[in-house]
Amino acid sequence: MITCKIDAHVALITLNNPPANTFTDSGLLQLTELIDTLNKSMSVYAAVITGAGEKFFSAGADLKSFADGDKVQARVLAQRFGAAFTALQEARPVIIAAINGYAMGGGLECALACDMRIAEEHAQMALPEASVGLLPAGCGTQTLPWLVGEGWAKRMILTNERVSAETAAKIGLVEEVVPRGQSLKTALEWAERASALSPRAVTFSKRLIHQARQGTPREAALALERERFLDLFDGEDQREGVQAFLGKRKPVWRS
User: Fold this and answer.
1) pLDDT tens digits for 28-63?
2) According to the model, what pLDDT value does residue 100 have?
3) Do the beta carbons of residue 87 and residue 43 sit within 8 Å?
4) What 8-state DSSP symbol labels residue 15?
C-alpha cells in the first residue's frame, strides 16, 4: 500500500507494506498512477518518499512473486518496476527520498529514481538481485553507474556489496547522512526550499540536467538551455520573481 498526503505545495508519499515495505504489481501500478496525478496537480511543487516504520525504506520486490519461475508474471513485474521508476525519475515535481532504513533491490532503485536522497546513519543499501539469479530491472543498471560511476556500480551489482550510509555519501549515492529518525524531517525541509522556487524554472532545470544523463551532445544541450531560459519570459514567474526580489518580498508563483 502506498499513501500520499499533501500539505500546501509538498506531497508526502509513504511506502507502507509491512514488514519490509515490499513492492507488489498493484503497488507499482499505484505508484505510477500517483506520480501521474501529482504531475497534473500543478499546486504540488515537491514530494518526499519514505518507508513506513523505522527499519525499512523498502526491501524491493517480494521474492515469493518469482518462486515458481513464471515468466509471464516476471514480465509484468519488470514492466511495472520500469514504468513506476521511470515515472518517478521524470516526475514534474522535485522528488526527495528519505531513506529511513534498509533500501534493497527495487527499494534502492526507487530511491535512485528520485532527484535527491537523504539516508539515516543506520541505513544499508544494496542491489542483491544476482545473488538469487535475477538482475536489477527497475532502471538500476542504468541509473546507478550514472550516479556513482561504473566501478562502484559493478561492485554493488556484480559482487553484491552492501554499502552503509557513510559509504553511500562518499560515492555520491546519497547527498546527506542524518541521525536515526531525522531523514523525513530533513527531506521535508529540502522540499520546502524547493517549493520556494519558481516551479516552471525548476521543471525546466530538472529536464535540462537530465539531458546529460541521456547523452545529449553538449552543444545541443547548451542550445536547449538557452531556449528554455528565453521560454521563461513567456510566463508570469520571471517577472514576479525579479520584481519580488527587487521589492524585498516573497514571490507568489502562478505557474
Assistant:
1) 999 999 999 999 999 999 999 999 999 999 999 987
2) 98
3) no
4) E
Which of 109, 176, 189, 225 is an active site residue? Answer: 109
Task: Please enumerate in sequence order all residues whose Cβ is within 8 A of that of 115, keeping only pairs 6 or more positions apart, or say none.
Answer: 94, 95, 96, 206
Active site residue 225: no
Q: Is residue 129 annotated as part of the catalytic site, yes or no? A: yes
Grid coordinates of 22? 515490499
> Any idea how long the chain is?
255
Q: Which of 121, 129, 176, 240 is catalytic?
A: 129
**pTM for this predicted structure:** 0.94
How far apart are the C-alpha atoms of 235 and 239, rounded to whole Å?
A: 8
Give 82-148 as a 3 state SS string.
HHHHHHHHCCCCEEEEEECCEEECHHHHHHHCCCEEEEECCCEEECCHHHHCCCCCCCHHHHHHHHH
Residues 152-172: pLDDT tens digits? 999 999 999 999 999 999 999
Phi-psi region at 181: left, alpha or beta (left = phi > 0; alpha = psi -120 to 50):
left
